[in-house]
Structures are given as structure tokens and as C-alpha cells.
Specification:
- The radius of gyration is 24 Å and the shape is globular.
- It is α/β, with parallel strands linked by helices.
Length: 401
């Protein structure tokens, strides 16, 4: 895929970590061939993670992330180090940059432990190798580089390319549920929160996946669904709706046509659907003042009628008959340890890569906190969760356990 075809959430995220003054930013610039990061001889020049989507040969579309030094000092330094650790949640491939003259610090070794615990593909780049009097033998996952002279940079890029090939897979949003020639109907409400002049990302990606499967789709708003179904000469295989319109769409869609939502499709696409379906059960066990976290992966401007802060709390209150205590987060603001919440309700995660979405689900599971996403929660509260999962028989079995 070209740079213009691949959204950031679908690109391998390659993050550079290490101590201050190890030359992370210089190496990032050398690898990318761009002045992506500010470079100076002053320790701690990189104060916040720098992230850029780009095309990197021989890998292809990637997201490159330069992080602050792990040994940053003071109160601001602590915050920067915490931001660096948050980057780990979205990292697909890690590069630990070490000053070859200094060798591995204890912080470097701690970071290597984290890489291994999380199963991250990683390599150790011993930078400033041009200043060494001699090069000793390194392990398989380590290599000498010099951001200054360019030595070893090509080898590092080839190493990253090998990792990127291993992290790729053949996940599909909807295509594996269709046969060539099938027809899908997409229900895409255009409300106040919809972006002007375009469709939202999950809708765009679903359309592309349908076309790649050599199938066709028809798109309409909620109010036009009945008329649209009536005018079709070919019966659709599936109706896919925005979660907010689930209840209305379910009433109009014939029982012999599969029905699901974009949010449920993306939960499956990012590998979290089984856990999220199980988390829906907790909605029926909430009590007054129970702490509930509602989290979105993007940072769009909140508007009147916002689904996360307005509609979902209203639906939950009506469904449960109680008044939970809601906390709202967006973007990268997701707790490292969500212990204490009774339930987490997460968006579909279209702006998060698979690694970060799985990391958030894993943190919830580790803390023993049920987690559900918008689409699954809305379907459950409207009594149509089983109907919305008929396209996924293996997931449907979870409801019977």
C-alpha cells in the first residue's frame, strides 16, 4: 500500500527508546532520511514523543516515534518518562538506542525486560559506534550503528523490515464474511458529530474491504433504510449500521439478513470481541455510584448529543435503573492500572492500532475490570446483541456459557 492509502492505525508503529544523549533523535533522522526530530548536544532535547506517519523503505507505510530519555529528571521529567512508557502500549517494533561508549544502563536493562514481557520484536542499536576503538561481537538482536556517519543504518532498516513482515497478518474487517458478488447495506447516519464532507474512518475502511472482496455495497441513512431495502433487486447478505442507530435498524432489517455494527466489526478486527462480549454482562450488575470509565481513542471536539459523554450514559442509566459515577477519557488518556472501576466502556478503537487496543483490554483484564465497547454495549442494552453476533457463530457461543 502507498502512503496515501494506509491510515496510521494500520501501520507498524516503530518506537525509539533509550537514555538521554544516546542519540535517539539523530538515529531517527538517519533512519528516516528526514529532520523528524530536533537534535542538539544538550541532554533531554526531546521533551515529548514525536510521532510521524511516513513511507520507510524497505518496510513501506509506518509510524515512527521518537521518545524522551528514560533518565529525564525533575517533576516534568517524570511526566515525560510516563509518556514514554505510554508509547509502549502502541509500539509494534521497539528500537533501544544505547550509547556504545557507555553500554547498557540499568534503565536500558529494565526496558529490555518490558519488551520481552510484552512480546515486542526489538533490537538494540549501539549508536556512536564510530567512536569505539574496536567492535566486539554482539548478540543476534543487537547491532552497531552511527547516526553521524550512516554506518549500520541500512542494516538497522533491514532488521526493522524483517520485524515488520512478521507483525503483519491477513485480518479483514468484513471481507471474510462475504463471497464475491455479495451485497452489503451500510447505514451511516449523518448527525451533528459527523465530519463535514466525508464519512468517518470505520465506514471508509469497511467500504474499501468490501470492494477488495469483489462485493458491492449500498449506503443510506437510518430513515431511508426501509425504502433502500425495498428498491434492491438483489437481497443483501448483511446490514452494517452505526451503533447509535442499532435499535431502529434492527426493527427494519428482515431476520434472514445478517445485522451487525461497525463497532462490532472493528472489535473483531482488532482481536478483542470475545472479551468485550463477556464484558457486556456487567451492565446488568451496576449499582448506584459504581465508577464507570467511558474511554475514546480519538480526541474529537465534544458536541451536543456526543455519544460518549451524553448518549451512552443516558442509555446506561435507563437500562440499569441506577446512576453510576462516570469518568471520561480520550486519546492517549487511558489508565495504566484501571483497578477500582466496575466497568470500562470503550469506543470502537478505529484510531488505535491493534497493539494499543489489545494493551488496553489486557490492562482491564489484569485489573479484573470488565470491558465492553460501544457497539456491543448498545446492542446488549437494546436486546439485540445475539442478533448482532449471528455473523460470528464462534462468538455467539459465548452468550450461552
Amino acid at each position: 500500500m502507498s502512503l496515501n492509502e494506509t491510515v496510521s492505525a494500520e501501520r507498524p508503529h516503530i518506537a525509539f527508546f533509550g537514555m538521554r544523549n544516546a542519540g535517539k533523535s539523530s538515529l531517527v533522522n538517519a533512519v528516516t532520511g528526514q529532520q523528524l526530530a530536533v537534535v542538539s548536544d544538550v541532554k533531554g532535547t526531546t521533551t515529548d514523543p514525536v510521532q510521524k506517519a511516513m513511507e520507510l523503505l524497505p518496510i513501506g507505510p509506518v509510524v515512527i516515534i521518537d521518545t524522551p530519555g528514560l533518565d529525564d529528571e525533575g517533576e516534568l521529567g517524570k511526566l515525560r518518562v510516563e509518556r514514554t512508557r505510554q508509547i509502549l502500549a502502541k509500539t509494534d517494533i521497539a528500537v533501544l538506542v544505547v550509547d556504545a561508549l557507555q553500554g547498557l544502563s540499568w534503565l536500558d536493562k529494565e526496558l529490555l525486560k518490558l519488551f520481552k514481557e510484552r512480546g515486542l520484536p526489538y533490537c538494540v542499536a549501539y549508536n556512536k559506534a564510530d567512536l569505539l576503538p574496536e567492535h566486539t561481537q554482539l548478540g543476534e538482536d543487537s547491532l552497531y550503528v552511527s547516526a553521524k556517519t550512516g554506518d549500520g543504518v541500512t542494516a538497522l532498516k533491514e532488521k526493522l523490515g524483517t520485524f515488520a513482515g512478521k507483525t503483519g497478518n491477513e485480518r479483514r474487517i468484513i471481507a471474510d464474511l462475504l463471497s464475491p458478488g455479495d451485497l452489503a447495506v451500510l447505514v451511516t447516519p449523518i448527525d451533528a458529530a459527523a465530519p463535514k464532507g466525508r464519512l468517518i474512518l470505520p465506514q471508509q475502511q469497511t467500504m474499501r474491504d468490501i470492494l477488495d472482496a469483489h462485493c458491492a455495497f449500498v449506503t443510506c441513512q437510518t430513515e431511508e433504510l426501509a425504502a433502500t431495502l425495498g428498491m434492491l433487486a438483489k437481497r443483501p447478505k448483511i446490514v452494517i449500521t452505526d451503533s447509535q442507530a442499532f435499535q431502529k435498524v434492527a426493527k427494519v432489517t428482515p431476520k434472514d439478513i445478517l445485522l451487525t455494527s461497525f463497532s462490532i466489526l472493528f472489535a473483531r478486527y482488532k482481536g478483542s470481541l470475545p472479551t468485550l462480549v463477556q464484558g457486556a454482562v456487567q451492565l446488568s450488575h451496576l449499582e448506584n455510584n459504581d465508577p464507570v470509565l467511558i474511554s475514546e481513542g480519538c480526541t474529537h471536539h465534544r458536541q451536543c448529543g456526543d455519544i460518549g459523554t451524553i448518549k451512552l450514559p443516558g442509555w446506561i442509566d435507563d437500562f440499569t435503573g441506577v446512576k453510576p459515577d462516570y469518568t471520561f477519557t480520550s486519546g492517549g488518556e487511558f489508565p495504566e492500572n484501571p483497578d477500582g472501576y466496575k466497568l470500562i466502556v470503550h469506543c470502537g478503537g478505529c484510531m488505535l492500532n491493534e497493539t494499543e487496543m489489545k494493551s488496553r483490554v489486557a490492562r482491564a483484564k489484569k485489573a479484573g475490570v470488565p470491558i465492553v465497547n460501544y457497539g456491543v454495549a448498545i446492542a446488549h442494552m437494546h436486546g439485540i446483541l445475539r442478533r448482532s453476533l449471528e455473523a460470528f457463530p464462534d462468538i455467539l457461543e459465548l452468550l450461552d456459557k
